[in-house]
Amino acid sequence: xxxxxxxxxxxxxxxxxxxxxxxxxxxxxxxxxxxxxxxxxxxxxxxxxxxxxxxxxxxxxxxxxxxxxxxxxxxxxxxxxxxxxxxxxxxxxxxxxxxxxxxxxxxxxxxxxxxxxxxxxxxxxxxxxxxxxxxxxxxxxxxxxxxxxxxxxxxxxxxxxxxxxxxxxxx
Length: 171
Hints:
This protein is mainly α. The chain is 74% helix and 0% strand. The chain has helices at residues 25-53, 56-59, 63-97, 102-122, 124-129, 134-149, 155-170. Helix 1 packs antiparallel against helix 6 and helix 3 runs parallel beside helix 6. It is elongated and about 75 Å long. The two termini are 16 Å apart. 15% of the residues are buried. The model has no long low-confidence stretch (mean pLDDT 82).
């Protein structure tokens, strides 16, 4: 930006604080820390999915059918990673066309955090039922999260930058 905004005008964003404005070392440290944390959680989820998959549903299959099933899972998981990646990238492009303001971002964050515990409890039974295809489901999530972690700029940053430009141009 060509004009320097007063520090009290820079709105904090969820997960980034006010570091998004200058995009300096603190900003990139937050982005890297978020990526490392998400990747550790994803590795754990992948491990659990693999252990559930290797359990009862697969062990009951005859050896030849098991081989076909394993290859089918591998192909489905590869396709799911690409599908998850493409889904996030399309959504990201769509959100960049109409980026949220900082206020809208915080309201969305509050709404997500209120629903999370109930959704987590409600997902346990379907998760156990989906154990035979869990690797493909988790692969979709891996593609989605990796795409989220590798975007150059989040829509919330674009929205906050536009909001800030509007505020500073008025004064």
